[in-house]
């Protein structure tokens, strides 16, 4: 009986999901947002399990990254530095989209993040010059 209870509890317990196979030492460059080439420079890194960080058009951002089953993903809450620059509207749109991410799909050279609304952010591994 004890074994049955243990197995039932084990089956009902939420399982921690592993981070997708993203190299923690790699930096990824945002190359496309909503089907259009991304103008400007924005990067993303995964410095540790469950963490995301990067550089938007103006400011650095950082926060929590969570992974679920079958490519489920979410970021947030995200924090960012607060420097002013001419690209603040683009940065606000980027940070909003990152906060709305629900899925990650790995590609040959990076990954694609998708929001519940179907918007996509394509990141490619930054090549070393």
Automatic annotation (TrEMBL):
Gene3D superfamilies cross-referenced by the UniProt entry: 2.40.128.270
InterPro entries: DUF306_Meta_HslJ (IPR005184), HslJ-like_sf (IPR038670), Hsp_HslJ-like (IPR053147)
Pfam family, one: META
Keyword entries, A-Z: Signal
N-terminal signal peptide: 1-18
This protein's record includes keyword Signal: yes
Domain DUF306: from-to ranges: 25-120
Protein's name according to its UniProt entry: META domain-containing protein
Lineage of source species: Bacteria, Pseudomonadati, Pseudomonadota, Alphaproteobacteria, Rhodobacterales
